[in-house]
Amino acid sequence: MSLNRVIGAGNAIPWHLPEDFKWFKASTMGNVVVMGRKTFESLGKPLPNRKNLILTRHPQSLIKDHAAIFGQYHEWRGGQYLKRAYQFHFTKMDKDKDQQTDILIFNSLDKLNPEEFPNDIFICGGSQIYEQSLPRCSDLYLTVVKREVAGDAFFPPFEDKFKLIAELRDTPEFKILHYQHHNLAAEQD
Ligand SMILES: NC(=O)c1ccc[n+]([C@@H]2O[C@H](COP(=O)([O-])OP(=O)(O)OC[C@H]3O[C@@H](n4cnc5c(N)ncnc54)[C@H](OP(=O)(O)O)[C@@H]3O)[C@@H](O)[C@H]2O)c1
After folding, report:
1. Cβ of 136 less than 6 Å from ligand 1
2. Would you state the pLDDT for residue 143?
3. Does the pTM of the predicted model rise above 0.85?
4. Which residue among 12, 34, 77, 160 is least packed, with the fewest CB closer than 10 Å?
């Protein structure tokens, strides 16, 4: 987020920081990334070699509106009615690199069970999803862009629930901070 807590403007990230993007990519590669429908649409495609969990209350519309994206996926396990949540699963194998990109569409955050996933789960935005998910997160990796930016999507308040445990990087343009949830961090001790 920027100094005035902006994370987005016009459904795009209002800065270009390749070093921060490299950090995001290295952290999330091979893991699970969770994002809201608007963030998925702003990316325009799933993040490769990760399990992409997309949240929307209208899964069928998402698939229909983005037929070009979903049509590239040769395996579709179809919509399953799982514990009162719809889950659609698309998967694509990258033949050259022997890696796999998955898209799972959920219509409810409550039905997303972290225990179903062996890897780390990264909540990747946007505002709505950060706000709903932060209370359940053990760790927060926050890039702070060292300037004020105009925008219409903001990072929610977290300071009362998380404590700063490390400054991972400090550059002239941004810093990366590692916070832990007071309660969830204590549970792990
Ligand atoms: N700076 C950063 O690191 C960063 C990262 C990510 C995103 N962003 C920015 O954030 C902005 C987007 O954020 P946003 O808050 O507007 O949208 P968002 O969180 O990406 O997506 C919101 C959508 O998610 C779905 N949703 C929300 N809660 C749900 C729930 N409990 N169950 C099922 N579906 C749910 C709804 O989709 P339906 O309407 O389809 O039902 C809702 O409209 C963009 O500007 C983007 O560029 C910035």
Report:
1. no
2. 98
3. yes
4. 160
